[in-house]
Design brief:
Largest sheet of chain A: none
Largest sheet of chain B: 6 strands, mixed
Number of domains of chain B: 2
Protein name (chain A): ABC-2 type transport system permease protein
Mean pLDDT of chain B: 86
Low-confidence stretches of chain B: 307-311
Strand content of chain A: under 5%
GO cellular component, one term (chain A): membrane
Oligomer: heterodimer
GO molecular function (chain A): ABC-type transporter activity
Number of strands of chain A: 0
Strand content of chain B: 25-35%
Radius of gyration of chain A: 19 Å
Number of strands of chain B: 14
Subcellular location (chain A): Membrane
Helix content of chain B: 25-40%
Order of helices and strands of chain B: EEEHEEHEHHHEHEHEEHEHEEHEH
Shape of chain A: elongated
Shape of chain B: globular
Main location (chain A): membrane
Strand order of the largest sheet of chain B: 6-7-8-3-9-10
Order of helices and strands of chain A: HHHHHHHHHHHHH
Radius of gyration of chain B: 23 Å
Structural class of chain A: mainly alpha
Amino acid sequence: MRVLLASLRLQLQLALRSAEVLQACLMAPLLAVVFLSVASLGGDAGLVAFAPSAIVAPALMALWTSALFTAGQSITEDRALGVFESVVASPAPLPVVLLGRMCAVTAVGLIAFASSWLTSGLVFGHWVVVEHPLVLPVALVATGLATATTAGLLAPLFLLTPSARTVQNTLTYPFYLLGGVLVPVTDLPEWLRPLGRAVFLSWSADLLRDTLLPAPPADPWARLGVVLALGGVASLIGTTLLLRVLHVVRSSGSLSHT
Amino acid sequence: MIAVSASGLTRTFQGGGQALERFTFEVPRGEVHGLLGPNGAGKTTLCRILSTVLLPTGGSASVLGRDVVRDAAHVRRSVGVVFGGDRGVYGRLTARQNLNFWAALHGLSGRALRERVAVLLERTGLTGRADERVDHFSRGMKQRLHLARGLVADPPVLILDEPTAGMDPIAAHEFRDLVAQLRDDGRTVLLTTHDTAEAEAVCDRVTLMRRGAVLATGSPSSVAGLVTSQDRISASGVPAAVVAELVARPEVVVLDGSGGDRVELETSGDTTGEVLHLLVDAGVTRLVRGRPSLEEAYLRLLRRQGMAVDR
């Protein structure tokens, strides 16, 4: 646990001294402005109806982008800094170090959600009521953790392929669509829905939207359980892959390659 | 007890490059052992294998009796590693934040962590700059931070891969003092360097490497003795008649006798005493008697093998 917390603290310290947090803080409200502007074309009724989606979507997009960035950059930058070999040579398990660093993106999710919500109120004068304040923070944290483990799945790929940027770029919009971030999975073509339901973001997006609606969310804890379970599966697969790839790069001598 | 050992250690890279070839050596506990060799000799490859970040393709190596492949987790707990250069730390963080992270990776927490970090900052002379970003440090200060990082787990074995590369002479001198302290603590230190004077100053024994294999191993003086067992006498202000007399003696090897009143000779046994008497009796006061340096042995041994620079 202390390795996990130390890695999380390290990532937060590094993020505070980089453009990462600034990017997340700017990206979410700017996207919120776009979505809310579209919603406001339908008048007040349109704004009221679409505001929950217009707040949740930018927050999840900022969270996922930040997670992909962290998954790729933490290994790539550590290699460039000459730090990665020392991390591997330490007694701390590498999957735990990476998981701790990925968990730091949960903070980005919280900031992004808050900034999107503030944008709706401050820019459009529409203050969305958090109807279910108990479920919302738990759902945000669970989403952050699942995002951390799912984006962490890509870390082994970044170990094998130092040029992480291409992978990062190709894994944004497909995930937004399949994850029901831009439109609910129920609105996707029927043949795509099962695939969407395998992506934790679809459960997170639906639940987060529901916390901003007056009606009580259906089975919130079960849906949270699905989010965490899908995140757990990603964590197991990611750890197995990472240890396997680590063995491969120790064998090939490419551990420190940049 | 043996702290570090390698037996027939071999490392071949894709494409056929052979970094280590049946490399065998032993480092007893508490010894400061130097690895000397030209670029490409296999020093860094050996350090990487011993620190478990690279797997050998043949042979075996162990640290404190633990195999570096089969028992990597144990080895990582007993080895501190300092890879050379000014990279290897988070420049955006402060020295204290860096050490806090590394200490946590080695299992420290709470008060023990804070105290250990404070001790290391003090020991490496970084206390006054502990809360400054490492980006603003000089190369020498970064090297000291590396050393602090390597010591964070209080390891019995320390691997230092060219730790003084790029250091200014004062920082390098301070580093030597620090290595002496580490030896006094009873730690085993494996040190790679290009600097033979440094190896001679701090190492109990050295291993000369060439193309991944051992060329010679022993104390710096015994390795120097491999190239010649003779005494070396340098003198200046020598009268011409005495120079001529020395040059004429068959048991004296004249290394340099063409510089007017300056001579450099190799002698042995009783002849050394006779030559010294002759020079002193002739009124020569500027003379030095010694043995060949490790640097000379290093260069001669490498030249005997061919070109000094590998791959």
